[in-house]
Structures are given as C-alpha cells and as structure tokens.
Amino acid sequence: MIVGKEEQMNLKRKRTFSVAVCILFLFVTFASFFYIAKEENHNCTGEDCPVCANVHQAEQTLRNLGTGMIAVATVNPVYTGLMLLITGPCLLVTSMSLVSKKVRLND
Fold first, then answer.
1. CA 37, CA 55: separation in Å to the nearest integer?
2. 29: Cβ–Cβ under 8 A, 6 or more apart, which residues?
3. Does the predicted model carry a pTM greater than 0.85?
4. 55: closest CA among 71, 41, 65, 69?
5. Alpha carbon of 95 to those of 50, 99, 101: distances in Å?
C-alpha cells in the first residue's frame, strides 16, 4: 500500500503523541509511587499536615490511573457487550486479494 507524504507525517505525529502520553503516564505512576515510599514515615504535624495531603493525592492518582477504564467496563457489562456485538463485524478485517478470489489474470 502506497502512503502519501502527508499521511506518513500524520502517522508519525500520532505515534509521537502516543509515545509521549505513555511516557507521561509512566512518569506520573512512578513519581507517585516514589513519593509515597519516601514520605511513608514522615513526622506528621497533625490534622492539617501538607505531606499527608500530598500522599493522599498521590494515592488517589494511582487509584484513578489503575482502575479508570476497568471500573467503566465492570459497571456497565451489558453496555460493553452490546457495543462489542454491534461493532464486532466492523472490527473483523478480512484480507481479500485477486489470488484469494481466484481471479485469473491474462496478458
């Protein structure tokens, strides 16, 4: 399949964006883990401790990153199944060629 220069640039831009999002996702995950591990035994100043608030925020971030889509899929299994049933035939890609159709090519 011949792809034009514009389509190649668009594909390259999408790949670059996808890699950047993955790196950002990993950075946020590891930064939250390391912050929680570092501040596990801090000297708490009481009820309005800023370190405890930051640790709580990091824990919430990890919960949201880890179970965001899983919660949607488990809360609405009927909706998810219905969408897969509707879009399933569209996702199935069959390879059709002249050889598979047994077309004879004469000179």
1. 9
2. 62, 65
3. no
4. 41
5. 59, 10, 10
Both tokens of 34, joined, read 């390391």
Task: Give 1-11 pLDDT, tens digit per residue.
Answer: 556 677 777 88
d(CA 3, CA 92): 22
Task: Convert the pLDDT of each residue in 74-92 to its tens digit.
Answer: 556 666 677 677 776 666 6
According to DSSP, residue 9 is labeled: H
Beta strand residue intervals within 15-104, DSSP E: none
The whole-angstrom separation of Cα 27 and Cα 24 is 5
Q: Show the tokens assigned to 96.
A: 């059709």
Tell me the two tokens of residue 56: 């709580």
Task: Quote the pLDDT of residue 56.
Answer: 85
16 vs 76: CA distance, rounded Å: 32
The two structure tokens encoding residue 1: 């399949």
pLDDT over threshold 80, residue 31: yes
